[in-house]
Amino acid sequence: MEVDRSITADRVLDVLTNLFLTRGVPRHIRSDNGPEFIARAIRRHSEQAGLEMLYIEPGAPWENGFAESFFSRLRDELLNVEEFTDLAEARWFARRRLHEHNHERPHSSLGYRTPSEFAAGCAAASAPAAPPLQPRHSREEEPLSVTEPKLS
Which of 16, 31, 67, 87 is the Cys-Cys partner for 37 at CB 3.0 to 4.6 Å? Predict the structure, then answer.
């Protein structure tokens, strides 16, 4: 989960490349038509990685229901209940929320397992082979800590 005041197409490329290196290249990514996802650099990079970009129709969020559900819960459970003093604090809360979502909260759609339990049970052989990719620059993340963030 990336938290910033603005995220450019180049930053999206960094995140995608690092995800591909750690998780493998998916067959496709479904996204909205935001400028960071339709940029030439993103299209070129996805073609080189053998990835198909699927865009939802403008004004049709139901075409990406999983993401809409996630964003709705994120809004209800984090963004509407927390007030952040700065970006560092917002990033800390986002990392904590992501950890809870992936490692602590069972999901009914996954047989009441956490996403990390579900992923561990998936056969690695079913993942498509990723073409060779080079790591891109990435913002250093602080390790997730159970202590409260430092407020300035």
Answer: 31
Domains contained in the chain, number: 1
Q: Residue 31: which of 8, 5, 58 has the closest Cα?
A: 58
| Residue 82 covered by a domain | yes
Contacts of 6 (CB under 8 A, 6+ apart): none
pLDDT tens over the chain, length 152 residues: 889 998 888 888 898 889 888 888 889 888 777 776 667 788 888 888 888 888 777 777 666 677 777 788 888 988 888 889 999 999 999 999 999 989 999 988 889 999 899 888 875 435 555 555 566 655 555 544 444 555 54
Q: What is the CATH number of the domain that holds 111?
A: 3.30.420.10
Q: Is residue 117 part of a domain?
A: yes
Distances (CA, A) of 13 to 4, 52, 60, 104, 138: 15, 15, 25, 29, 10
CA distances 110 to 69, 113, 145, Å, are 15, 6, 27
Residue 135 lies in a domain: no
Answer yes or no: is 134 within a domain: no
Which structural domain, as residue segments, surrounds residue 97? Answer: 9-126
pTM, rounded to two decimals: 0.63
